[in-house]
Amino acid sequence: MEQTRQAAFAPSYAPSPVGSPTRESHRESTVAANILVVEDEAAIQELIAINVEQAGHRAVLAGDAEDAYIKVQQRLPDLILLDWMLPGMSGLEFLRRMKANARTQRIPVIMLTARAEELDKLHGLETGADDYIVKPFSTRELNARIKAVLRRRAPQMTEDRADIGGLSLDPTTHRVMAGSQELVLGPTEFKLLHFFMTHTERVYSRTQILDHVWGDHVFIEERTVDVHIRRLRAVLQETGHDRLLQTVRGSGYRFARE
Ligand code: CA
């Protein structure tokens, strides 16, 4: 199964002294992104993983492209931090393969490069990376770039409030309001609604919804989606907002703006 950083480095991991434990655990439950760190140098890999987790995300580690490929198949990450120089297949070749595959082509990727020349080459190649970081980088720069890419490419992974069709979802307080009425949702329905409210007016198949909300379409059955859609609709019905969550026959589901 996934080798998470907790499993690999738990004894040496010390949580950030900044922020209360309540705040940290709250963030973990609402907007923690799964970030795949593909880096062969153990020290850098660990440094990145510590930072990613202190920022409230989960780090999944891979030491080479082959390992990264297996981790991606197990669970689709929300973001990949990808080193250029890897043993065996290069990070660049791995990126090309991700972009050539329909399931993985939308995963945001930040390339890590050791030299400025590599960065020049990357810019020239137009490989589809979302951003680039040149080593050595500060933790502040890393966190800022992760945040910017998630905001741009995976808004359901940020703490930004979403306001659609009279519904207001606040990831920081984990509350959904319809006007002055609070809608009480289970954790999965909350994530589902957050995803839909940040990805409106587009049809998503059950497989795509599993990938985006559960991170997995291989081991979870498609009818799981229908079960949670039904629960979400039942709550939205209280205020008539279930009309926004539409079934598109033969295709999947769409969340309308109005
Ligand atoms: Ca390397």
Would you give an account of this structure?
This protein has two domains: 5-157, Rossmann fold; 162-255, Orthogonal Bundle (Arc Repressor Mutant, subunit A). A five-stranded parallel beta sheet has the order 2-1-3-4-5, with helices on both faces. The longest helix is centred in the middle third of the chain and has 15 residues, at 139-153. By secondary structure, the chain is α/β, with parallel strands linked by helices. The chain has ten helices and eleven strands. Helix content is 42%, strand content 18%. A hairpin with a 2-residue loop joins strand 8 (175-178) and strand 9 (181-183). The termini are far apart. Helix 8 crosses helix 10 (223-236). It is elongated. The structure holds calcium ion. The site of calcium ion (CA) has 5 residues, from loops.
Task: Give me the secondary-structure topology.
Layout: H1 5-9, H2 21-31, E1 34-38, H3 42-54, E2 58-62, H4 65-74, E3 79-83, H5 91-100, E4 109-113, H6 116-125, E5 131-134, H7 139-153, E6 162-164, E7 167-170, E8 175-178, E9 181-183, H8 187-197, H9 206-214, H10 223-236, E10 245-248, E11 252-255
The structure holds calcium ion (CA).
Calcium ion is lined by residues 40-41, 83, 85-86.
